[in-house]
Amino acid sequence: MTKRPNSRRLSAEETFWGWVLVTPTILGLILFKVGPVLASLALSFTDYDIISPPKWAGTSNFTMLVRDKYWIKSVGVTLNYIFLFIPLSLTIAYGIALLMSQNVRGISIYRTMWYLPSLVPGVASAVVWRWALNPNFGPINYPLKIMGVPAPGWLTDPNWIIPAVVLIQLWALGSGVLIFLAAIKGVPITYYEAAEVDGASTLVKFWNITLPMTSSVIFFQLVITVIGSFQVFGVAYILFSGQTTSDPAGPGNSALFYVLYLYRNAFGYFKNGYASAMAWILFMVVMLLTLILFQLQKKWVFYETAGAD
């Protein structure tokens, strides 16, 4: 039985200075995090336009949501994006990480090239892609036009806008690739050596060793990606900025993401009570999905545990 190290009680002076040092952080958390969250909850039950004092409205903001055609449209656009982006982003990032885990000459250069786009600010990235996806002279469509192939209207055709946003977001998968790469490189090599002794093929080793040993990281990336996918804003705002009336986001509102519509209700139409209700609906949906994912992870996520002492 191991003996616990000696411990001593903190002196009054140490306790005082400890509280002094953590007080700014605690105050910042309360004033800039907890405070606004609780304020938005209160405002979600009011009619508030920033200029006039809030007026109690009960649950009318929440009941109005199901009658708002733009809100329904924003939910549909966001779900379409989620169902396309999440599987593609996880699959592509993991596949690239597998390629980057190979010990070949110049691999550090390739890793850097894949990671660099994730360092580009979202605004700059959206501006560059708006030029690249231009249907007339963009470098993506121009070669297709030369070859006589019908070039899609990435940012003008409602059927192509969601794939265009997904393409832009996939360009910046460097962080996810880096996390997957660290997980793959962290799998003990002894497992692979033992499998090779038994005559296991590359596919068998991947399915029975690499995938289970990195499943916890895949789960982490899945949760983060799900949460982030509900919060698409910057790309849609930059690509379709200035449209705040009949078509808030692209032709037929085909880029009307949930958070973009929330933002325009709050700062374009000054319906802050309504926007707060939208924010809380989003919060509850994300929390519910996160809890479901944590329950489902027990069926497929493998956690390596250390042996008992």
Q: How is this structure best described in words?
A:
This protein has 309 residues and is mainly α. It is built from 14 helices and 2 strands, in the order H-E-E-H-H-H-H-H-H-H-H-H-H-H-H-H. A two-stranded antiparallel sheet has the order 1-2. Strand 1 and strand 2 (55-56) form a beta hairpin. Helix 3 packs antiparallel against helix 11 (215-229) and helix 13 runs antiparallel to helix 14. The protein is globular and about 75 Å long. 23% of the residues are buried.
Rounded mean pLDDT is 88
Total strands: the figure is 2
What is Rg? 25 Å
Quaternary structure type: single chain
Shape: globular
Counting helices, strands and paired strands, the structural category is mainly alpha
Topology record:
Elements: H1 12-43, E1 46-47, E2 55-56, H2 60-65, H3 69-100, H4 107-115, H5 122-132, H6 142-146, H7 158-170, H8 174-185, H9 189-197, H10 202-213, H11 215-229, H12 234-239, H13 258-267, H14 272-296
Antiparallel strand pairs: 1-2
Helix pairs in contact: 3-7, 3-8, 3-11, 3-13, 11-14, 13-14
List the keywords:
309 residues, mainly alpha, two-stranded antiparallel sheet, 14 helices, 2 strands
How would you summarize this macromolecular structure in one to three sentences?
With 309 residues, this protein is mainly alpha-helical. The chain has 14 helices and 2 strands, in the order αββααααααααααααα.
